[in-house]
Amino acid sequence: MRIDIITIHPELITSPFAHSIIKRGIAKGLAEVNFINLRDFSTNKHKTVDDYQYGGGAGMVMMIEPLANCIEQLKSERPYDEIIYLTPDGPLYNQQTANTLSTLKNIILLCGHYKGIDERVRSLFITREISIGDYVLSGGELAAAIVADSIIRLIPGVISDETSALFDSFQDGLLAPPVYTRPADYKGHKVPEVLLSGDFEKIEKWRSEKAHERTQQRRPDLYQP
Ligand code: ADE
Predict the structure, then answer these.
(1) If you measure from the C-alpha of residue 139 to the centroid of ligand 1, how many angstroms do you get, rounded to a whole number?
(2) Distance CA 17, CA 145 (A)
(3) How far away, in angstroms, is 5 Cα from ligand 1 center?
(4) d(CA 40, CA 32)
(5) Model confidence over 125-134: pLDDT tens digits?
(6) pLDDT at 168 (0 to 100)
(7) Residue 177's pLDDT is what?
(8) What is residue 216's predicted lDDT score, i.e. its pLDDT?
(9) pLDDT, tens digit, for every residue of 136-182?
(10) What integer best gives the mean pLDDT of the chain?
(11) Ligand 1 binding pocket, CB closer than 6 Å
(12) pTM of the full predicted structure?
């Protein structure tokens, strides 16, 4: 899968792809992430990409020309399955959307700044919008990193233990059950007996009960018994 991230701050977003699981997925050739500096597509010598908004009001707006030039160039090089704009007024992101996006071949993530992008970019080029939560970030870069991370880890082969992504919280509509590691007794705080029993049927039953209990208590909005 290829993810092209359009940004005015490439330096803000490179590090999440240079570590751990995501780094290994990229090194294995299972995912490719490119950072495209929007300023390279500016149409003026000052490399500006924003301007005052029509009608007045505080805040700059990202101009259509650099964005259109950038997206058109990328589209001339390969077909894209989705051109996604990260924006707080988009539909809320969730695991189901991550699963859908992880099956695609080429996507663009467009990071907004200031007041946002000229509305005509949204109507002409954007195929999907994503908000990562009901709060406003300074720009779309951190949101793009979150979306890209959540997608890449789902690509088969990126997580070495193939089954482990399947048991993530949300994957089956439930939060994950509690987990423990050594020591079995920390200053009197003991690991639940069942996990030490070696009885895998019992352990699975306990995990399932805990996942239901947690979801019901913490996210009643998600819970479907
Ligand atoms: N850009 C600014 N805030 C955002 C949010 N909550 N989600 C996605 N992109 C954003």
Answers:
(1) 7
(2) 8
(3) 15
(4) 21
(5) 999 999 999 9
(6) 83
(7) 95
(8) 97
(9) 999 999 999 999 999 999 999 999 776 677 778 888 899 999 999 99
(10) 96
(11) 86-88, 112, 131-133, 135-137, 140, 143
(12) 0.95
Q: What is the mean pLDDT of residues 197-210?
A: 97
Return the structure tokens found at 187. Answer: 């200053």
Mutate to test the pocket of ligand 1, among 84, 114, 132 (most ligand atoms within 8 A of CB): 132
DSSP sequence for 155-208: STTSSSSTTGGGGSTTTTSSPPPP---S-SEETTEEPPGGGGS--HHHHHHHHH
Question: Ligand 1 center to residue 215 CA distance, Å?
Answer: 26
Most ligand 1 atoms within 8 A of CB, residue of 84, 109, 131 to mutate = 131
Q: Is residue 5 predicted with pLDDT exceeding 90?
A: yes
Give, for 150, the enclosing helix (H) or strand (E): helix 141-152
CATH number of this structure's domain 169-218, picked from the four choices 3.20.20.450, 1.10.3720.10, 3.40.50.11540, 1.10.1270.20:
1.10.1270.20
Q: How far apart are CA 214 and CA 223, in angstroms?
A: 9
The angle formed by the CA atoms of residues 214, 217 and 222, to the nearest 5 degrees, is 80
Q: Which segments of the chain are extended strands (E)?
A: 2-7, 32-37, 50-52, 60-62, 82-86, 106-111, 128-130, 185-186, 189-190
Give residue for tokens 């970019």.
121
Q: In CATH, what number does 2-152 get? A: 3.40.1280.10
Per domain, the residue ranges of the chain are 2-152, 169-218
